[in-house]
Amino acid sequence: MANELRGGNGQEVERTGGELILQVEGLKKYYPVRGGVLGGKIGDVRAVDGVSFTMKRGETLGLVGESGCGKSTLGRTVMRLEDPTDGRVLFEGQDLATASRQEVFQVRREIQMIFQDPYSSLNPRMTVGEIVREPLVVHRLGTREEQLERVRHLFEVVGLEGRMIHRYPHEFSGGQRQRIGVARALALDPQLVIADEPVSALDVSVQSQVLNLLAGLQRELGLTYLFISHDLSVVEYISDSIAIMYLGRIVEKGPVRRVFDMPTHPYTRGLLKAIPQPDPRKRRDAVPLTGEAPSPVSPPPGCPFHPRCPFAVPECREAMPPLDLVQGSSEVPGEEHLAACIRKDEI
Amino acid sequence: MTGGGRGPAPAGDAAAENTLTRPPEPDVALLEIDNLQVGFDTEDGLLRAVDGVSCQVDGGRTLGVVGESGCGKSVTASSILRLVPSPPGRMLGGEIRFDGTDILSLPREELGRIRGREIAMIFQDPMTSLNPVFTVEKQMGEVLRLRFDLTGEPARARAAEMLSTVGIADARSRLSSYPHELSGGMKQRVMIAMALLSEPRLLIADEPTTALDVTIQAQILHLIREMQAETGAAVLFITHDMGVVAEMCDEVAVMYAGRVVEQAGVIEIYERPRHPYTKGLLMSVPRKGQTKDRALPTIEGVVPSLLEPPKGCRFADRCWHRKRLGEADRARCVDEDPALRSLEGGRVACHFPLKGDETPPVEPPPGAGLSDPVTSDGPPPGTGVE
Ligand SMILES: Nc1ncnc2c1ncn2[C@@H]1O[C@H](COP(=O)(O)OP(=O)(O)OP(=O)(O)O)[C@@H](O)[C@H]1O
Ligand code: SF4
Ligand SMILES: [Mg+2]
Q1: Of B16, B205, B58, the residue nearest B5 (C-alpha)
Q2: A129 Cβ contact list (under 8 Å, min separation 6)
Q3: In the 8-state DSSP scheme, what is residue A314?
Q4: Is residue B259 one of the residues assigned to a domain?
Q5: For chain A, which end, N or C, has fewer CB atoms within 10 Å of the first or last residue's CB respectively?
Q6: Peptide bond just before B88 cis, omega within 30 deg
Q7: Quick one: B237 and B346 in the same domain?
Q8: What is the Cα–Cα distance from B88 to A6, expressed in whole angstroms?
Q9: Coil, helix or strand for A103?
Q10: Average pLDDT score over chain B
Q11: Is the pLDDT at B15 greater than 50, yes or no?
């Protein structure tokens, strides 16, 4: 027996801003490092190492950081594509970290993912219509006719013609493929969409089309986005809040305008200064940050950023600084400006 | 950069002759690409990847080459060192002159002498230049031997010095590493160190920082600028990042579908783009402080096929400027191929260059354009099925 496709007539929670949709607490994801003669475990890659944050319904949280800092693992662990090593992921109050397979399956209707590479994330042997319909089939929603109707509708929503559903992925451009990925993610009418570098593989002229699409869909459907990207200009444009990760940890989080105008953590300061501005009259001459991030297998003790930090003092090596309110920050849940640096209010 | 310009002491006369500090000949650019045409034989016919590209770079200057994926940037760059694989690649015409010498008709041996001595190239993927089976020292030593006849301890010292210049800690011990023992950022630095070691007169950099994080990118860009300031090398810098172009380049060539559609000084390109494609490209990047309440301008449509390029302007079917022209002018865009012609300091290939105040259209504000009965009327979003 097929489930019903969701009608949406008031049976859903109001999708307006305000309450928290996601609360992540102390989340950890370690991968074992094997080696030695016996191939035993010799250590851990601490991909996500104690991450806590909240998201408000209807907002976009931009998650930024350098390659290997754990952004994608965090996104995948929130979705329970990976089992967390420790911590809690509360989605509308339900803890996904300990949820059963059946419960996780149900929650998948509410949390969907858009991937970076529009070339490899679509199955080349399925028509794009089948690709978009697949989640409906897996979740047994509606009759075949209803599903096809929904697929055509989704195509229009993302700006593709409904008659294209019989074509194959290779017949589409990068931007069109990314739209197909968006349509698929929307098939189950999710509340939270985790977008992992959704525009990074696209040319800038196409990138702006996809950004407009995502912003428009959010406005129309009240979606909440966790937007993972290494591109700070894109994140600044699309996000309401921003979280900056370094070596498996969030080192700063806050409303996007505030963080861009008043970056507090020394890593955020360096990162923002390192973005080349599309204005030839504003060239930098100094290098904002030297060195590179150390390996997450043996992160430095204390603040993980201290070896590169221009403000480091001996105390920085002693303990991991907590993510705390920055002076002058709002205290409304979800709107706080937080930074993990013992010198945050003096530098 | 420490020691970049002075050259290693034991270098012989040949090396001294080759040093970079030699001023460029007046009126002749160090590198001149003239109507370059490169094709690839494919199952579907001849693909004209580069179809009449012309540009030039002077010593001490940086030319940025931008444009969307597949427009021919890398093929143009590889042609300079004749690195285009053949078959399927074929030179179909044009000239490339380096310091007055026609590279395309140079005998192999002479080309080999220029490669790695006078012209160095760095790529997005460092493994294009690094050999996985040799240590860093062996590979850097080879550059020094070829270029300056430098071997033994002096070569080792010079290599270690260059490694620390590019920001590799503990350079001496890194010399004995194999490429796979290095992180991505480190491999990139090693490749750049090798390119800088040879003190080229022309450095070709094909997306050298695209795979790197912004903080590392900033370091690498800084290095390239320092090397250039010290040696006076010309740099051909290929990127799709308009921020990097603004930061690095003196001149910019904008490519579209196998052609250069505009070339001008960097300030002119950013402040007064003349080609509708250039302006669209610049405006589709989110600016500092811009938020999602205002949609970004876009360039609708896709690039034309290089198998059968349109006979008129290649940008015509996507051109927002053309849509605002009268009927006769619109027809001209489709019928007549616009030549790259000089215009107030720059060059542009457009029949109707922008005057300045025209801006590409912005679609209706996000959310308003989803022409769909289900989402825009009555029933809440996502209903899909009634
Ligand atoms: N070895 C090859 N065989 C066939 N076609 C090729 C080959 N190399 C390049 N091409 C084609 O030539 C055209 C230009 O490619 P090129 O690599 O120069 O683009 P590009 O501007 O560097 O793009 P990108 O920004 O993606 O690096 C493309 O259509 C490409 O598919
Ligand atoms: S020639 Fe015509 S179509 Fe081509 S860029 Fe100029 S205005 Fe647009
Ligand atoms: Mg290329």
Answers
A1: B16
A2: A148, A151, A165, A166
A3: G
A4: no
A5: N
A6: yes
A7: no
A8: 54
A9: helix
A10: 85
A11: no
Q: pLDDT at residue B372 above 70?
A: no
- Counted domains in chain B: 2
Q: Residue B133: give its domain's CATH number.
A: 3.40.50.300
> Do B233 and B286 lie in a common domain?
no
Same domain? For B295 and B216 the reply is: no
Mean pLDDT, residues A239-248: 95
Residue A147's SS3 state is: helix
Q: Where are the domains of chain A?
A: 19-30+42-102+229-347
CA–CA min distance B221, chain A (Å): 9
Structural domain of B193: 27-249
Among all bound ligands, the one having the nearest atom to the CA of B49 is 1
Nearest atom, ligand 2, residue B276 CA: 5
- The answer to whether A284 contacts B247, with C-beta atoms less than 8 Å apart, is yes
**ipTM value of the model?**
0.83
Indicate which residue's Cα is closest to atom 7 of ligand 2: B322
Count of helix runs (H) and strand runs (E) in chain B? 13, 12
Please tell me the distance between residue B290's alpha carbon and the centre of ligand 2 in angstroms.
28
User: Can you tell me the distance from the alpha carbon of A226 to that of A77, in angstroms, rounded to the nearest whole number?
Assistant: 13
State the DSSP string of B212-243: S-HHHHHHHHHHHHHHHHHH--EEEEE-S-HH
Distance of CA A13 to CAs A9, A113, A186, A232, A252, Å? 10, 21, 17, 32, 30
Q: How far is the CA of A177 from the centre of ligand 2 (A)?
A: 28
* Mean pLDDT (whole number) for B300-308: 87
CATH architecture of A19-30+42-102+229-347: 3-Layer(aba) Sandwich (3.40)
Instruction: Tell me which H or E stretch contains A88.
Output: strand A86-91
Q: How far is the CA of B321 from the centre of ligand 2 (A)?
A: 7
Which candidate, B237, B270, B238, places its Cα nearest to that of B61? B237
Which chain A residue's Cα is nearest to B366?
A216
| Residue B13 forms part of a structural domain | no
pTM for the whole thing?
Answer: 0.85
**Helix, strand, coil tally for chain A in percent (to 5):** 30, 25, 45
What gap in Å lies between CA B237 and CA B206, rounded to an integer?
6
pLDDT in tens, A270-320: 999 999 988 999 887 778 888 777 777 888 899 999 999 999 999 999 999
> Which residues of chain B does A140 touch, with a Cβ-Cβ cutoff of 8 Å?
none
